[in-house]
Design goal:
globular; 31% helix; 231 residues; 8 helices; eight-stranded mixed sheet; Rossmann fold; 26% strand; alpha/beta
Length: 231
């Protein structure tokens, strides 16, 4: 097993002085919101091709962190940002959750709905950019963003508002400082990015390490895992 780079477990209170850093962190989160990129039609087509591939380059089983996060938790209303082919939404529906999945890919949504129908499951879907989606106010008991990176973190404030008291956020993705795409452009979550943008929530679990990645054929990659709860 690869050696962990940084693993922090939060049984309760965060480790930073919140009175001192809260104004700065809120300003940083607001800045991140203004820098959110607009989705392009090419993005939808790229993901359509990805999800239509009969030999997917990603784990088709539910994400392990999400599975662990909902163990023993009473099912409620769940929002899965980045539905894809439905691996996580379908898992949640099987556990009794009322699930809504959001994705820009009509092909991914088609596959997810067909799979859910074959299993006799109800699955609500929305084909829309996460930046356009209306999270509402205190509607969700769970919001997940698995390998959604800045699509998730840029919308942290709206996600917080959409969470019910007691609701949780579950996120996992690549860390940008160790994973590079063609041309060396950084890709993934920045160091402690999720801790900063979700500072208003109570951190339940945070992990920054090298380990098997859902979107890398199970190869070891720098991974960030995060669970937080709205008090």
């Amino acid at each position: 097993m690869a050696e962990a780079r940084q693993v922090i477990l939060y049984p309760g209170e965060g480790c930073m002085n919140r009175r001192l850093f809260l104004p700065l962190l809120l300003a940083a989160a607001a800045l991140a919101q203004t820098q959110a990129p607009a989705p392009l039609p090419a993005d939808r087509e790229r993901w359509n091709k990805t999800f239509a591939n009969p030999n997917p380059a990603f784990n088709t089983k539910p994400n392990a962190l999400l599975v662990e996060a909902v163990k023993g938790r009473k099912p409620g209303k769940a929002l899965d940002i980045g539905l894809g082919q439905g691996r996580n939404s379908i898992f949640l529906a099987q556990q009794g959750w009322d699930v809504t999945g959001v994705d820009i890919s009509d092909e991914g949504i088609r596959i997810a709905k067909e799979t859910a129908a074959k299993l006799g499951l109800q699955l609500n879907t929305v084909q829309q950019s996460v930046y356009e989606f209306d999270f509402g106010r205190e509607q969700w008991d769970l919001v997940s963003g698995i390998f959604m990176h800045q699509l998730f973190s840029h919308n942290a404030e709206r996600i917080r508002h959409g969470l019910k008291p007691g609701g949780i956020v579950v996120a996992e993705g690549f860390h940008e400082d160790r994973f590079k795409v063609a041309g060396g452009r950084p890709f993934g979550l920045r160091t402690n990015e999720l801790l900063r943008v979700f500072d208003g929530l109570r951190i339940v679990y945070y992990e920054d390490r090298v380990g098997p990645a859902d979107w890398a054929g199970g190869k070891d990659m720098p991974i960030v895992r995060f669970i937080a709860r709205k008090e």
